[in-house]
Amino acid sequence: MSENTSKQPEQNKPTYTASNITVLKGLEAVRKRPAMYIGDVSRRGLHHLVYEIVDNSIDEALAGYCDKISVTIEKDNVIMVEDNGRGIPVDMQKDEKRPAVEVVMTVLHAGGKFDKGTYKVSGGLHGVGVSVVNALAEWLEVDVSRDGFTWHQRFEQGRVASQLKKGVKTKKTGTKIRYRADFEIFKIQEYEWDILAERMRESAFLNKGVSITLRDERTDEVQEETFLYRGGLVEFVKYLNDGKQPLHDKVIAFEGEKEGVPIELGLQYNSSYQDNILTYVNSINTIEGGSHLSGFRTALTRTLNSYAAKNNLLKKSNVSLSGDDVREGLTAVLSVKIAEPQFEGQTKTKLGNSEIKGVVDSFISDGLNEFLEQNPSVGKRIVEKCFLSAQAREAARKARELTRRKSALESLNLPGKLSDCSAKDPAICELYLVEGDSAGGSAKQGRDRRYQAILPLRGKIINTEKARIDKILNNNEIRTIITALGAGFKEDFDIEKLRYHKIIIMTDADVDGAHIRTLLLTFLYRYFPELIIKGHVYIGMPPLYKIKVGKQERYVYDEHERAAAIKQLTNGNPDTKVNLQRYKGLGEMNPDQLWKTTMDPETRTLMQVTLEDAATVDKIFTILMGDEVEPRREFITTHARYVENLDI
């Protein structure tokens, strides 16, 4: 373990002993219903276990006691997380009459987070913490360095397997946890480097000065990367804007405390037409926003309008800047730390503390006003870009009004090429966005007309990453999609009016199909992110091959499945006759085949589009669909070696 290098004076540090550990009972249900605690038992849930352990170390960093965290993926998918914090207390907890570390590991809602003298703020999944990891682990071992000694204890499936043992003397402090997830519970058994790396990078950005090292020992060639950002959110914004053209060189940043709430903000405008605003509460990514985001938006719109009016920057027009105008091309990261955050929303990632809106609004207004007064040239460039956005918004008004009118008329004036379903309950209705009229024809004939609607799209829609709103709304395919969804657009958007709760993108299994799918996802991500957040967007998975051996038929979706299926159907006999049909497009399937493989809920495969890491998603969309060529070339060069089936 690393030495604790915290500079905080000893006499100013509150005590952290067993008396600080508060117990809220109940752990038995975790193994029976793990998805209630970690979301699911597939890839997301498996990686979430790692986050829970790391978040405990981050809480020590937030409290000022930890500056080094290491995360290692060992062989056999064992995870090790080590920090140089204070170490989990090992003295007896008075209510449970057991060592505090054992209580923390075996009792749900037990820990120092509930004692505000120990942690003023904390992250993690709302307090469930390490006990849930322990419950879902085949085994877990904890090593603590504190009180002058090392301490060790082992658990198996959440139960005590060995008593706490006192070890050798040490001057170090910290906690090391090693565990192996119970793969009888989890469907996925492999940790993904990229997923963990993005989370560690994000945590390091949000906690400047904290070093987080990620190490993968599963192969002979050990992979290791250390994330340390002393610039904090300034470096985060630069990272997010990589591949974009900044409107001003320096990131606008300020941090401080308002009414007891620490607030940190970094922002920079670029030449794109999209905004990327990330918000965090106690290092938790609040992807659904909340009161802190509302406060930021209000402050930004009011401050820029006030500055523009004061300096006669809009004197040639009576147009005022809307929220959309001032956010065009904006990249911003807002981080607040709250003692008792209240989360709401479907994914529990929306801040509900109403008082925070005014606090953030006031803090950012003061900081932004001061910056603009001291940097008039930057202020002028920002307002000029916002004004161009306002002009484009006005030019798009007629197209948007047309969309509004069509939506208001509902099914009476829905797009002519939409084959609607008969059901009116959005919860059971599905909309297929289908590539081409040919595939659309097969889908219309093969569908279940009661709840499946088909909207064939002609050609490739406009790249919404590289176009302003007026051009986007003048695109017929875009207008058709907006009208079919029925939920409005931009400030008129109301998810309660959404006509279909499953929006399924169904394109050919080739390069063109992948491009069309990416264009559609870009549009939905940039202009309908709530549809993705609420889990309404899916990708249909058409088969690549139909294999027939005698009377046996099987549809497979990639080359690996093809090889395995042929081996199984022929019993490994190379002389067996195999009929192999390669589907170049959906239009090659007859309606019955399309229904069976891609549309029948009993047999189809759908991939739900999720938004787990907004920073990574935004960066990839910028690389693949943006103006800059060099980042795209680097991305393709880096990832080309992983391509297994390229349809030429």
Concise description?
The chain is an alpha+beta fold and 648 residues long.
Explain this structure.
The chain has 648 residues and is of the alpha+beta class. The protein has 3 domains: 10-227, Heat Shock Protein 90; 233-395, 2-Layer Sandwich (Ribosomal Protein S5, domain 2); 397-542 and 607-611, Rossmann fold (3-Layer(aba) Sandwich). A hairpin with a 2-residue loop joins strand 25 and strand 26 (552-556). Helix 13 packs across helix 19. The chain starts with 21 loop residues before the first strand and ends in a 9-residue tail after the last helix.
Key structural traits:
disordered C terminus, 36% helix, 648 residues, Heat Shock Protein 90, Ribosomal Protein S5, domain 2, five-stranded mixed β-sheet, Rossmann fold, 21 helices, alpha+beta
What is the strand and helix layout of this fold?
Blueprint: E1 22-23, H1 29-32, H2 35-38, H3 43-62, E2 68-74, E3 78-83, E4 92-93, E5 98-99, H4 100-106, E6 110-111, H5 129-135, E7 137-146, E8 149-156, E9 159-160, E10 165-169, E11 174-181, H6 193-206, E12 211-216, E13 223-227, H7 233-240, E14 252-258, E15 261-269, E16 276-281, E17 284-285, H8 291-310, H9 323-327, E18 330-336, E19 343-344, E20 350-351, H10 355-374, H11 376-395, H12 397-408, E21 430-435, H13 437-446, E22 452-457, H14 469-473, H15 476-485, E23 502-506, H16 511-527, H17 529-533, E24 537-540, E25 545-549, E26 552-556, H18 559-569, E27 579-582, H19 591-599, E28 606-608, H20 614-625, H21 629-639
